[in-house]
Amino acid sequence: MLMTWMCGCYGLVLLVLGVMGQKLPTRDEGLFQMQIRDKALFHDSSVLPDGAEISGYLFRDTPKRYYFVVEEDNTPLLVTLTPCDAPLEWRLTLQELPEDRSGEGSGEPEPLEQQKQQVTGNEGTELFTYKGNDVESFISTSSPSGLYQLEIISTEKDSNFKIYSTTTPESDQPYPELPYDPRVDVTALGRTTVTLAWKPTPTGSIMGQPIQYCVVINKEHNFKSICAAEAKMSLDDSFMIAPKPGQDFSPFDFVHFGFVPSENDFKDRSLTTNRALSNKMSRTYIPKPKVADIQKICIGNKNIFTVTDLKPDMQYYFDVFAVNTGTNMSTAYVGTFARTKEEAKQKTVELKDGKVTDVFIKRKGSKFLRFAPVSSHQRVTLFIHACLDEVQVQVRRDGKLVLSQNVEGVRQFQLRGKPKAKYLIRLRGSRKGASTLKVLASTRAGGKQPFPALPEDTRIKAFDKLRTCSSVTVAWLGTQERNKYCVYRREVSESYGEEHRRREQNQCAGPESRRKSEKVLCKYFHSANLQKAVTTETITGLEAGKSYLLDVYVVGHSGHSVKYQSKLVKTRKYC
User: Fold this and answer.
1) Cellular component terms, GO, for this chain's entry (predicted)?
2) Number of folded domains that form the chain
3) Strand ordering across the sheet containing 75-83
4) pTM
């Protein structure tokens, strides 16, 4: 049976031994189970509780020691150590309990220095050593009684770890059991998706324990424990709070385990510990950048999962962990890795000098256009008309990036030319939906532009005070260029809202797509003074209490048109 005893770290060990023949105290199981749920009690304590997992923190090159007492011979023993974010070295030794005790029959504890010498003066019997970052265990079906010491050190960096120890490994079974085939298989592979499958843990399917599976995805390597993945996901090295100075020697800890040290003894020990640990706590923590390429997804008890939103032609590492939701303890499956398929090579569209080309792009898709002028040229004028949502435009001249911008509406770009230069244009669509564009590239200097000039603000303004039962008055901005403006109206239902209007906001759909009955008028307009480039129009012949959608189209010299933002208006019901 494993007894919890309080001992100091950094070489200070307190053992309180009773008189010869006195029986070691037994554990109140109900009280103990209640107390181990309080993580603050065992945080950074050098006591190892029986049947509970604790978390610890190591400063680099500073060993930490944990102790426990096995009071009876032939006791089963399991000690499992889980490194979280660095390889660890750990060593388990046995120090037999001394037969002779000072203060015979008095029940008084031995002097502190004498107790220290009993442990620190003897190296004990080495039972197990390990160095690495694997989850490793020491297990014995029959352990002798005595004082056990677990010493851990991290030589690479400050690190976190977990320890689980028990004297009843057969009945506890805190970690989910792996199936006979613990591998994670890739069952389907796409450009942006990978489907994983694994065999269920017997702990859930046969023993009926509460189990959920967590999947970890990253681009660097597989993880051997879930706490290693969580450490990588944290914002900096101190994702678990480092122990506070003096925490190892809390008066509450001593009283809890039945020891009542004198006030002076505690003050001496606390001061010594504060000095030792204050040097450690003065280290500067260098925050790590937030890791966006690693994610953990817990999916319940399903044993098949499809990872989505991956990048094409990219290698990913996948790990699956079975987590006992009752104990929050986990076991790692044998992870796997896979490279997503390459993005399908798209056919490049050839642009002709001075000709408008219609382009359709799927949601979140891309299109490549190529422009290779026949004659030498000094500059290239590129017109982009994004009919729906914003699109991203990139232009490379002979492989060199010369333009990268987001485009909404109509935009014109001037690119410096080079003899025999070739231009590759990449258009990336919107995440909201499919994109439609009109693209024109030209080396011809001067001449009239294919698309009409637009003001910065393409909204239609409605005047509420001029609204009647049969008419509405609206206004819109123009430019210094003389263009033709056509106004159209369409009656819509009362339920017609902004979402309907947005879906129909295709700037490339010209007046030719409208019914003749919806046409209100067409007129020419411009102003040399941009401050006065505004025009108004009163639309009559409407019905009382009805809703109408108004559209204004500006038509360029070559016949290409651009639609202003639609405006929803409503006539008065009573006049």
Assistant:
1) extracellular region
2) 4
3) 52-58, 159-166, 75-83, 136-143
4) 0.48
Q: Model confidence over 140-155: pLDDT tens digits?
A: 988 898 889 999 999 9
Considering the domain boundaries, does residue 4 fall inside one?
no
Query: In whole angstroms, what is the distance from residue 571 CA to residue 78 CA?
Result: 82
Task: Give the separation between CA 454 and CA 476, rounded to whole angstroms.
Answer: 11
Out of 388, 416, 442, a domain closes at 442
**Residue 546, exposed/middle/buried by CB under 10 A (0-12, 13-18, 19+)?**
middle
Task: Please give the biggest Cα pair distance in the chain.
Answer: 115
Amino acid residing at 556: G
Overall residue count recorded for the chain in this entry: 575
Domain that holds residue 144: 52-96+124-172
pLDDT value of position 122:
59
CATH classification of the domain holding 86: 2.60.120.380
* Residue 63 within any structural domain of the chain: yes
Looking at the fold, whether 406 and 372 belong to one and the same domain comes out as: yes
| Same-domain pairing of 160 and 200 | no
Give the pairing type, strands 547-555 and 561-563: antiparallel
> How confident is the model at residue 504, as a pLDDT?
67
Among 570, 442, 436, CA closest to 506: 436
In a domain, 1, yes or no: no
Sheet holding 88-95, edge to edge: 2-3, 64-70, 146-153, 88-95, 125-132
DSSP 183: B
CA 405 to chain centre: 27
Structure tokens at 115: 């107790």
| 203, two tokens | 């702990």
Among 172, 206, 229, identify where a domain stops.
Answer: 172
CA 240 to chain centre: 18
- pLDDT, tens only, 390-405: 899 999 999 999 999 9
- 509 and 543 in a single domain? The answer is yes
